[in-house]
Amino acid sequence: MGLGLRNFTERNNNGQPDLDTENGEELMHMQRGVDLGLANLPPISSGTLYITTKQVIWLSDVDNTKGYAIDFLSISLHAVSRDPDAYPHPCLYTQIDTNAEEDGSENSDSESSDIQDLSRITEMRLIPSDPSQLDTLFQVFCECAELNPEPNDEEGEEHDWVFSADQMEGEEEEEEGYISPNPPNSLGQSNGNHDLARTVLELHINDQRFEDAEEMEHDEDGTHN
């Protein structure tokens, strides 16, 4: 687990973030015109988003002293949100794992723009000025999440989106061994929480059982003929 959201002000002469290139950190994607929503606070505008192989960095375009970063290890889930009932603007929604104890003190006052304690921020929204870029941002997040598996994973355990059917359901080993429950049109990915992936896997297994039952019924009808 990472340390949650943190301030980031290290910029190079070009105004871009200083990366840890000596340890292999590389820039994967840059997106201009991105507002930042933290918890229930009003969005912060406007900034540039930098996605690297290790972290997500947002730097303000109007205040060189303002910026935030979060390691991919701290992001437990990310998903595209286009439902205006959930949030007024299309965005990439993320959940953040933190080491802070939950005491209800997360900044929930929507009238205040003051961020008291970043370690208690558990939700972040990236709001591009061009909503058509959301799918691209989501895909880059998926790729970078794959590059940052949980360090405490048991030996031999696959990434969260790839599970053994017998590990999840206690069933007999499937013929293909491992099943990827990530559907082609998925709009969400769990980086550290198995609940969403488990639900998709259960649907996959139930569909397979239904197909097997149909095949058995068809074979029995053929036998009687």
From TrEMBL:
Protein encoded by which gene: LOC107470759
Keywords for the protein's UniProt record, in alphabetical order: Cytoplasm, Nucleus
Bias kind Acidic residues: ranges: 168-177, 212-225
Sequence segments annotated as region (Disordered): 1-22, 167-225
PANTHER family: CHLORIDE CONDUCTANCE REGULATORY PROTEIN ICLN, METHYLOSOME SUBUNIT PICLN
Any one Gene Ontology cellular component term annotated for this protein: methylosome
Protein origin, superkingdom: Eukaryota
Main location: cytoplasm
Subcellular location: Cytoplasm; Nucleus
GO annotation, biological process: cell volume homeostasis; chloride transport; mRNA cis splicing, via spliceosome; spliceosomal snRNP assembly
Entry keyword Zinc: no
Name the record gives this protein: Chloride conductance regulatory protein ICln isoform X1
InterPro entries, alphabetized: ICln, ICln/Lot5/Saf5, PH-like_dom_sf
Family of this protein: Belongs to the pICln (TC 1.A.47) family.
